[in-house]
């Protein structure tokens, strides 16, 4: 887990003018010239959909405003994700539950916990999740991809993202791909979460094109409860999610153009205050977030309760 920079915190008014995205020069829009594709990941699209101001702090303002301290739930999630990645890097005959403690220790991220006792308790919990989870895996079966980057272009987007796992499973007409996303938040997830996840749908859409095999099933594997929430997409439902992502990309590009044309950046990227402000990395920078009560960095791993709005 990377620690945030302590430099570059802007004023509370957040009046710094955004620069062109990713430091690239803006293209001039000549008639007949193809529009520039919007380069994006699921996190980038999700940040704007959640709160345009958070998007601006993350992706537009440079230098970026300083983030708050690291979150323990992000450390826990990253540790478990990397341990599972390294599990699959072992030769199949060494994938035994006894290997998990070493894997988890090797990938453990310490940031954000209240104290050593809380951290040790989280480690023991995570090890228990992993031990139960690997019991459910088919021995000797390798996924098609682990933390695999898939990318695709549409008329608007140049999408790329890293799927936790891509499985190849037998289907009625041959092998089919399945997108698997690990979750470590405190509450379970259901089929509506799998159906509504734009990230999973975009991974499926991209994987189908990268591997030239059907990829319609998406699964959320919730390690704390050992449950799997799944959804079977259709070509139409994937296309709808892509279309929504393109709409978001158009909104972002319009906001950036408006700033370039002189609109106040605070107006082009408005705040959308809500419960998620307490978990926002930019709460101390954002004038709306500063009004919201903040969460302690370890709050989400402290005891079973509502999950944080931002988790992985
Ligand atoms: S604190 Fe709230 S309103 Fe401000 S950027 Fe974060 S999510 Fe948006």
TrEMBL record:
Chain residue ranges for the region called Disordered: 1-33, 289-312
GO biological process: DNA repair
Domain PD-(D/E)XK endonuclease-like, residue spans: 41-287
Extent of Low complexity compositional bias: 1-17
InterPro entries: PDDEXK-like_dom_sf (IPR011604), PDDEXK_AddAB-type (IPR038726)
Family matches, as Gene3D superfamilies: 3.90.320.10
Swiss-Prot/TrEMBL keywords: ATP-binding, DNA damage, DNA repair, Helicase, Hydrolase, Nucleotide-binding
Protein name per the record: Recombinase RecB
């Amino acid at each position: 887990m990377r620690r945030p920079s302590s430099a570059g915190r802007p004023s509370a008014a957040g009046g710094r003018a955004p620069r062109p995205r990713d430091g690239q020069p803006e293209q001039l829009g000549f008639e007949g010239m193809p529009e520039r594709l919007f380069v994006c990941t699921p996190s980038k699209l999700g940040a704007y959909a959640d709160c345009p101001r958070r998007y601006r702090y993350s992706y537009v303002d440079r230098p970026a405003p300083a983030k708050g301290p690291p979150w323990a739930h992000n450390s826990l999630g990253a540790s478990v994700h990397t341990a599972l990645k390294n599990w699959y890097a072992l030769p199949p005959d060494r994938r035994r539950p006894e290997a998990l403690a070493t894997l988890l220790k090797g990938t453990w991220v310490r940031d954000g916990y209240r104290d050593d006792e809380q951290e040790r308790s989280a480690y023991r919990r995570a090890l228990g999740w992993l031990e139960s989870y690997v019991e459910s895996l088919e021995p000797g079966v390798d996924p098609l991809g682990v933390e695999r980057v898939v990318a695709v272009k549409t008329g608007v987007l140049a999408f790329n993202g890293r799927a936790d796992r891509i499985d190849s499973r037998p289907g009625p007409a041959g092998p089919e791909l399945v997108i698997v996303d690990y979750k470590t938040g405190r509450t379970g997830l259901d089929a509506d979460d799998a159906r509504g996840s734009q990230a999973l749908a975009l991974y499926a859409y991209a994987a189908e094109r990268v591997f030239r095999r059907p990829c319609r099933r998406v699964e959320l594997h919730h390690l704390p409860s050992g449950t799997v929430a799944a959804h079977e997409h259709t070509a139409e439902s994937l296309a709808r999610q892509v279309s929504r992502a393109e709409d978001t990309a158009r909104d972002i590009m319009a906001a950036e153009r408006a700033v370039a044309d002189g609109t106040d950046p605070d107006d082009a990227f408005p705040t959308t205050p809500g419960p998620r402000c307490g978990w926002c990395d930019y709460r101390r920078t954002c004038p709306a977030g500063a009004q919201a009560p903040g969460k302690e960095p370890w709050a989400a791993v402290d005891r079973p309760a509502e999950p944080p709005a931002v988790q992985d």
